[in-house]
Amino acid sequence: MKKWHILEDITVEKLVFGGKWFVRLDEWVTDSNKKKVLFITGWAVPGSIVDVKIIKKRKDYYESQIVAVKKKSLIETGAYELFPGAPWMNIDYNEQLKIKQTQIEESFFHVQKIQPEINFLPIIPAPDQFGYRNKIEFSFGKYISHKEEVFQEFNVGFHKRGEFSKVEDYDECLLIDSEQNILYKKIKDFAKQSWLPVHDQKMWTGFRRHILIRKTYFTNQTMVIFSYFPEYFENKKDLESALIDIKKFFIELAESDTSLSSIYLSHNSNKSDTVIGDMELICGSEVITEELLGLQFDIGPKSFFQTNSRGAELLYTLVKDFSHKESFKNGTVLDLYGGTGTIGMIMSDIAKDVISVELNEEASTNGQRNAQKNSINNVEFINVKVEDFLNDYIEKWMKADLLIIDPPRAGMHPSAPENILKFNTKQIIYVSCNPATLARDCQYILENSDYTIEKVQAVDMFPHTHHIETVVSFIKKD
Ligand SMILES: C[S@@+](CC[C@H](N)C(=O)[O-])C[C@H]1O[C@@H](n2cnc3c(N)ncnc32)[C@H](O)[C@@H]1O
Questions:
Q1: What is the 80 CA–ligand 1 centroid distance (Å)?
Q2: How confident is the model at residue 467 (pLDDT cuts 50, 70, 90)?
């Protein structure tokens, strides 16, 4: 089968990593007794019958994109095109939970070769199915499709799946609440009136790049970041005069909306399509403050913070409940990949001390401020890469009693797992947002130590998307 070949009437089997769908093909891998597999990107669900176009060919698998949905699956409930940012909205919520539970259990396939009996607890449903996101990022961009004869110069919304340079225009997203949607629409309308072109990711030109909105769930404070490409203007004077109008608009907006407490401009020359770059506070306070489990957390424009506040409470409570308090009471907890110190601070009332290790300087600084704000004196923040911390600090922190690991999607750095094991703590709690890297790291831990997996618990923090959060507890064998 060659690239661009169209495969017809394929029945989607199941979800695998990265939100892709999986089908086992009736075609042998050369010199092997395995059959080839097909990964599918696009709107589908298990049981859908689709036509796909092959876009990548490898020795033992193909990657493909859906070109037509021939028959909907029985678990589909509506039309997905209506729900930007929430591709699974058309799948019954209980079915979504089943898909996620199955994916977690299947991703432990190789782990179960080492520990066949694993205690998979049933996935915990999300506290809210809609309006749960406290952070959303809309991109400006064009949509040009010669095939469909659509040439739109001004779009704000989300990138078209699989076609990164194209942005599909949306006026609202059901994963944020109505106040965030109203605010987004006001900013979008303002941008639409301006003559300044949107950023073109392909040609690397155009001015406006992103609208990022962050709104705390429990304290009702909103931060907006408007990101633009400064190099669009050749001279500084033209840039400054363009920014005057933008600043004026946002200052007036803040005057009319009391929950809008922090507004930044992001001078964003970065190649990657995210809101980074130099931040200029143009109105309000530097941070917004969320309250979780009775503690206050300042969140800056670049800080990581769980995007579902009620879900985060659920997740952190689970981590605390999973911890064997009797084995580290009055001991040291290492909170690795600590972000703004949320988990560390939540554990601080049952530990003697907590060391929170985080790469992002702003998150660490905010963590320190958060601790002071909450009169917590036993959490130390170390701003360094976990892999470097492990190399340099093992001797010093050898006395650690509990390890909590919460790495980004890529999982731990390859050098980290080996060093993690040297602490020899009675328990390790691993929090993960990526089943594939979680399973890889779990496999390493089981193969190279006398830890055993006590339990695995998935939490649905992101309904209507493929994202899953999972907590794994490792304990020492008797
Ligand atoms: C999934 S977040 C967890 C944050 C925190 N535990 C929480 O629940 O809010 C992962 C964090 O790891 C940080 N990070 C990424 N790579 C890192 C590394 N190599 N060393 C230390 N921190 C890292 C990120 O900046 C981010 O704050």
A1: 32
A2: very high
